[in-house]
Amino acid sequence: NPIQPPVLDKCGVATYWNTTEKKVEKIDTCCPPISDKIIDYKLPPVFGMKTRPSAHRVSPEYIFKYNMATDRMKRLPKDDPRNFMQQANIHCAYCNGAYDQPGQGNLDIQVHESWLFFPFHRWYLYFYERILGKLIGDPTFALPFWNWDNPKGMTIPPMYMDSRSALYDPKRNKENFPPAVVDLGYTGNKDPLQVVSNNLTIMYSEMIRGNSSALDFMGKEYKEGSPVNPGAGAIERGAHTSVHRWVGDPNQPSGENLGNFYSAGRDPLFYCHHGNVDRMWTLWQYFLPSSKVPDKRITDPDFLNTAFLFYDENAQLVRVTVKDCLDNLRMGFDYERIDLPWLDYRP
Ligand code: C2O
What we know:
Strand content: 5-15%
Number of strands: 7
CATH topology: di-copper center containing domain from catechol oxidase
Structural class: alpha/beta
Order of helices and strands: EEEEHHHHHHHHHEEE
Number of domains: 1
CATH architecture: Orthogonal Bundle
Bound molecules: CU-O-CU linkage
């Protein structure tokens, strides 16, 4: 059977590992507000496709709107499920053990290191984006993506670096502020040219060379009753995690904010980073040569029928399924077309 969605009024304490003090920390503030009404979410008809832009190429007008929307999200009442901290806590609740699998004792629900990674984060961004759009009265608003797979996008995007902006977060590694080049292998190499070249090699390997089956890319099977973390897909394990750690502040107890699950969503850059992670899924599905993985679909009903709960842009609790998020165009968004210099980057 598929993993069942959590029961919100059974949401409990989340935990994380404090790497500095070497002990388990408990957090009891990650649970969302409770609602007794759950609506089965229907994807709305797509009238205009949203195009998510590359974060390094956006206009000042775009930055203004995005900043305003994020600022409004931060100012919503604390108990509004659309409030910025509530949104950040979604990640904590689904990733730090606040939810148990219904009917499975104390087995946690964990959306990382399995085939739920891409679907969960796609839905998470989907509602986050719609909430931002709603707050500025612009239903066409599209989140940006951090184009870290292209040399032109390999620094923290400038709009996140203005300390007066709602997009800023003080808990980041100052050593990696622009012009530092993001290190997709988390190698510690400081030579920019070598890092760029290494990044392209990593992209080629995680997107193409290393995958012989759909699950190598997506992550391993994870079903009702399975223990957590059966195995991450190539991008999740590699570039995705490196970027989290590279941005997080090593002077915080546990790499906050981006470097730890419970706090990652507190940095607005999270949603931009995951924009690119999600874009990798789309590219892999629809644009890559398929000789090694001729069939990229996972047809197991236990995958397709896995469900999650989110609050939508109208603060209604909705139940969504994996099968409804497999096609980004059906969900109403696409990505700006940018060259893929790693496509032929064989070492
Ligand atoms: Cu839910 Cu990038 O992690």
